[in-house]
Protein: Glycoside hydrolase family 71 protein
Amino acid sequence: MLLVFALVALLFVVDFGISGPIGNAPVFNTMSSKSLTKRGSTKYVVAHFMVGNTYPYTLQNWSSDIHLAYQNGIDGFALNVGRDSWQPQQVANAFQAAQQSGTGFKLFLSFDMTSLPCDSASDAATLRNYITTYASHPNHLIYNGRVFASTFSGESCHFGQGSVQSGWSTQFLQQLSGENAVYFVPSFFVDTSAFQGFDGVINGMFNWNSGWPTQLTASSVPNFASSALSSLAVYIGATVSDEQYINALNPMGASYMAAVSPWFFTHYSPQTYNKNWIYLSDEHLYAKRWESLIRIRDQVDIVQIASWNDFGESHYIGPIEGAQPNSQAWVNGFNHTGWLSMTSYYATAFKTGTYPAVSKDQIIMWSRPHPASATAPDPVGPPTNHQITADKIWAVVFAASPATVTLSTSSSESQTFDVGAGATKLSLPINPGGYMKAVLQRNGQTVIDLCPSFSFNPSPPSYNFNAFVVSSS
Structure:
């Protein structure tokens, strides 16, 4: 089977520029256009925002984040709220900052049901209070005439009732009416075959795990040799999971919210959160996932970016600020805001149906800080699935007009590419002790010379599979 995938993957080795109207580029899916319900024309792009990481936030912090997100094509934040007593005040600050921004930036609640209690009827009051407090706020997302609300998990919540469906229906949805009526699009971690059982309860579903090829694990891939890793590229950006959700939701007339994410690495010991694994994020995951969603945009109502500031899982695209969840060891020094330019480009294409013209040359480049096979004196140990990631640097080039780009990872390892106007995805292997360098030239003149202070460390002090991201100004 891997041989078949390897042949398909050859199509993805060099993926050159995309610009202009969206065409009929191939996408790895099995969805029949006859089986799909046409969605509305209005599209939204939002980012998952961990309120639990904002304990020291001021109103200015919220204002800065909102302006930065808005400037990069993001329409709103999904505010992940948990049980901390101080979080309601930070939610209030978020709504105040959004209103003061004058941008029309939208917010909605994403109830974190792995944190919030949901065993008794009284537990639902917390959720209802959030809705009634902000339902009429000018910056709350109103969708199909109702107050948009989501969750992270919640598929086991019964709120003291006889079933999950009855709990959410009688203790949450039915008690909110008029201007407080909710358009409910949760992220329930259930099989799509169970969606029909929630008909009349949900108005849609958020597919959180669609952001990564989560099915790829060390146990599911039989050969970890670097020469075989390229065969995994066919999974990057694939829409099989989306198709399953869409086909299950369509008979219900329900909305679909898809996830897109640039990365995933978490490294908590068994004594803390006991989370130590990666999801495969190679082969330009962020760009390819966006491109796949853009191809099926008629079937996708909202794209949610995971995430703006979830530092513990390394998929943040916003600045590193606030209070980290003890993730400093793999987050500090690893700024990801270089991915915001990519967000702006692809979010615009998703919302409008046309890739925007590139007016300014820019290169975004990233890599891990050490080889996948490196050993470290780290009691937590290497993350699960580290064997299936490749030692490479990845780059996305935005060119205003045709140019050449040279990637280098050592004095003897470099490659020059011809790039067209628009976006181009490039990569190059990197060996222990290597560096990252990218040079864009046009008409014999150097336009960009990007060479960050970075070394691919063969002997790291601890395991860190986070991405070191840089971009030209």
